[in-house]
Design goal:
By secondary structure, the chain is mainly α. It has one domain: Four Helix Bundle (Hemerythrin (Met), subunit A). The radius of gyration is 17 Å and the shape is elongated.
């Protein structure tokens, strides 16, 4: 195995936020799985979980794209990974835009329809989260957190 230079970007924040996003995904799934018969309380819990996920996603996006952040480091030290990092960032922007649409849509539809809209979104978030972990692993051989 070839030795790789350690990242100069502190991946601790990215790793911590990745775990928090995982927790927020789990909370959104629990909110969706709750009995919908409670009406507004169900809707409020789902919207709150979406908003939390959005806040964490925005923070992660800023950390990755900030000057001196992960994308800048890959650009200067690991140019072979820049295209993947930029594609990841585009996907993150798309997911965040979809999330904002869901926050607006969920209160306007029946719970069954809300679930039909949000569940595929959850799958995209999980795939995006894993794509980021794979990119960091491939670039640095650093595990930013996964199943124990």
């Amino acid at each position: 195995m070839t030795e790789r230079e350690a990242p100069s970007t502190d991946l601790t924040d990215i790793s911590t936020r990745r775990a928090e996003i995982g927790d927020a995904v789990a909370e959104l799934e629990r909110a969706l799985a709750a009995p919908a018969g409670v009406g507004e309380a169900w809707t409020g819990r789902v919207v709150d979980a979406l908003r939390l996920l959005g806040e964490l996603g925005q923070e992660q996006s800023r950390a990755v794209t900030a000057p001196g952040g992960l994308v800048d480091e890959l650009r200067s030290q690991r140019p072979a990974f820049v295209q993947r990092a930029e594609a990841l960032n585009e996907s993150l922007d798309e997911v965040l835009a979809e999330l904002h649409e869901l926050v607006e849509a969920v209160p306007k539809v029946e719970p069954r329809d809300a679930r039909e809209k949000v569940l595929p979104f959850l799958g995209r978030v999980v795939r995006l989260r894993q794509t980021m972990a794979d990119l960091i692993w491939d670039a640095y051989w650093v595990d930013v957190g996964g199943p124990e």
